[in-house]
Amino acid sequence: MHVKSNNTMKAIRVQKFGGPEVLQIAEVPAIAPGPGQIVVRVHAVGVNPVETYIRSGKYAKLPPLPYTPGSDGAGVIEHLGAGVSEWRVGQRVYIAGAPSGTYAGQTLCEPTQLHPLPDAISFAQGAALGVPYTTAHLALFHRGQARPGETVLIHGATGGVGLAALQLARAAGLTILATGGSERGRELLRREGAHHIFDHHNPDYPADILDATNGRGVDLVLEMLANVNLGHDLPLLAPDGRVLVVGSRGPVEINPRDLMARNADIRGVMLFLAPPSVTADIHRVLVAGLESGALRPIISREYALAEAPQAHGAAITSGAAGKIVLIP
């Protein structure tokens, strides 16, 4: 657990924005909950690409320094603040939001930021749920309004959001076309049930996608790297198609006629702008999917908490095949 006494714990502290080396492990005071708050003993931490952007200082909303990164994790409830009645000490939970950060041995949460973790789901798998699965569901079903029988192209399907979207779309009755940049990743997509799989490094992949749909195109595109792919996505859309922009690292040039000719839409997806009622509904679906076995988070690699710099490097490297987690 990396806790030397009841009064301290290990945590990653960022004193200044910069490269991965600013992720420094430190001994910090243990957390006590205030009224209405919960302290969770963290057993696994989900590492998300957005945390690398925040750490670098290149993000729209930055936390005050110093700070502990992370919003996702899983563990066991350790302490309940006054007035908390819906949870109990010792309960297994996954974390989707934590004011004190999750890259630590303990984290402080509001009751609405915790969700029950079924016994069949490991702590590492639980740590993979928060941002990736909530974002995937928001993109597919709230922003994208996906319906059973529609066709979805998941661009970059081997990362955390992509695999979450694949599993959610499969359970909802969509036909799934998925791209992966490595043979290992494409084999994972086969095992996870994608109907058609493509190598996005192959220059002919757009034509292959159209062939797979008999020239009609796809109803939805989940786009993780819009600055590279968006201009190529639009000609792949079916009439009334939608592109859901989940990630982008810069500007891109498109031809608006590609939208006009298909009566199509480009829709942005930002999890942190979703109303609390929507995210609460999404987590109910996620817990049910975990209990039924429809959702099975896939872990690519586990790192020790002190290896957070290496984990940040892995989180933004192409060719991913699952989720990167830290183990405090």
Descriptive report:
With 328 residues, the chain is an alpha/beta fold. Helices cover 29% and strands 26% of the residues. It contains ten helices and 15 strands. The chain has helices at 49-56, 123-127, 130-143, 160-171, 183-191, 205-212, 226-233, 256-260, 276-292, 308-315; strands at residues 8-13, 24-29, 38-46, 72-80, 92-96, 106-109, 114-116, 151-155, 175-179, 196-198, 218-223, 237-245, 265-268, 299-304, 323-327. Helix 10 (308-315) links the parallel strand 14 and strand 15. Helix 3 (130-143) packs across helix 4 and helix 3 (130-143) crosses helix 9. Mean pLDDT is 95; it is low at 1-5.
CATH superfamily of the largest domain: Medium-chain alcohol dehydrogenases, catalytic domain
Instruction: Assign the structural class, choosing from mainly alpha, mainly beta, alpha/beta, alpha+beta, or little secondary structure.
Output: alpha/beta
Q: What's the number of domains?
A: 2
Helix content: 25-40%
Largest sheet: number of strands, sense, barrel closure = 7 strands, mixed
Helix-strand sequence:
EEEHEEEEHHEHEHEHEHEHEHEHE
Mean pLDDT: 95
Q: How many E strands?
A: 15
